[in-house]
Amino acid sequence: MPHDTPLISTIVGGLVLAFIFGALAHRLRMPPLVGYLIAGVLVGPHTPGYVADQSLAPELAEIGVILLMFGVGLHFSLKNLLSVRGIAVPGAIAQIAFATLLGWALGAFMGWPTGGSLVFGLALSVASTVVLLKALQERRLVETERGRIAVGWLIVEDLAMVLALVLIPAAASIGGEGHAPVEPLSAGLNRLFDLDLGIGGLIAMTLVKVALFVALMLVFGRKLIPWTMHRIAHTGSRELFRLGVLAIALGVAFGAAKLFGVSLALGAFFAGMVLAESELSHRAAQESLPLRDAFAVLFFVSVGMLFDPNILIDRPLPILATIFIIVIGKSVAALLIVLAFKKPLSTALTISASLGQIGEFSFILAALGVELGLLPEEGRDLILAGAIISIILNPLLFFLCDRVRPLLDGAKREEVAAAPSAADAIAAQEEMPPEDDEVHPTALSGHAILVGYGRVGSIVGQNLKSSATPFLVIEDSDKRIGELKAQGIETLMGNAVMRETLDLANLSAARSIAIAIPNAFEACRIAEQARSVNPSILIVARAHSDAEVDALKHYGADTVIMGEREIALGMVDRLAQVHHESVPYEDGHGPDTIIPADDAPPQRE
What we know:
By secondary structure, this protein is mainly alpha-helical. About 70% of the residues lie in helices and about 5% in strands. The chain contains 25 helices and six strands. Strands 3-2-1-4-5-6 form a six-stranded parallel β-sheet, sandwiched between helices. The longest helix has about 40 residues, at about 375-415.
């Protein structure tokens, strides 16, 4: 068997170097994706040493985009998508138009043809799927209103780029500027009926195909995909279930691209969205997570491979102008658009920071523009440089937005306080939309902190409530937070791994903390921070294995409950009741069993 295989060497070289530099970036308190990009530059053709296969790496990265969008679809229901259409559709269109205009102006200033300048502007207008979702997931914002608007905005951008990818070759052919391939269905109609659809016909054909795909997914996919997964789950084979998840994600994405002309990412998103209505959606998300993360890393590596560092020296001013359009122009436009829709400042800042970068669709548009002879190679290099630098700067943009928001909120409050009359003050307050997911520090002391309100956390929380124990819940799900507030339970929206969230929960004055989330890595970090801030606090956590028990105790947990062991002990106790008559056998729940209240059923985690 030959060992010099480009596929294996590309995967090994990319993942190993990404791990090394990702760990180094994390050590330096930088986002790991910076390390992934540097790893890509090192295995690219523009630096000495090993060079990975440049044709395989982007295809591997595309698998990561497919799996990532599939995972997002699993947590993004059709109801959520429709709930943000009022702002996502007009907002995304306005932002694309503004950024395209800025890019066209820059291209025209550098002497490029009109077609190339428009392609350049379009490439700068669309945000990266991977970067945006990574940023939202790290901050636990996907299920918030801000996250839903950002993801909906992203879907509209994807649809617009699908349309652009069809129209650009047609426009190049009509204008005589290229020899682009014609859209297959239009070409077939032209051959059979000698019917030239023209540009308007191409737009209509594209919209019809996209609408047909969406309709098929919503009508037939909503029944067929969940039914298929349930049948696979009933086999009891975890291997077949995992394979079924990957087959549906990749198969639907590939079929959507080939049959309907939509993007692979968009096809995968709708596949995940229809599966989200099944009770198996959480398990499907868990099974696809390892491959999703691995291939997402390969995406960043492939982006780094395309970057030529020499352009930073050769063309510094055009690069600065490109970065200004991406990071400043797009972000400011998105901020003003969201505020114009009367949305909270926190929502506007989050969306503006999320969109302040470009990614995979930008690379596709750049490659298409160069292939058609519309965009000069310099334009492609500027797009690549702008993508990498904007991706690196994106975490800094989020950081600045988090710092600026309190200052702007304070300025608004001062304006309200300085109003000349009470009526004006009331009117000013009504104009300020409430921060729907704003968090405030608790006033509790000597209380319990409950991290997570899923199946386990809901049982713990109801018991704390029934015993009149003062406590608060740290959660990141809008739905659960709404239910908790309806029950009068104090909540904090956020990720308990973040020190700021624990500070808002008044960790230093708390008597106990119950870590009810199933993620052992995050639980260990929470336990470590809790012990360092409050050495006398009682820390109770959950685990799924002996290794997790040892790790949690090492990081400061006092008591760790392993679910499997407690289940086994419960089964042994029930068997003893029958076979040894230790206690009378009773149907239903025993007196020592804690169950959640009827008005708060346990949520899937």
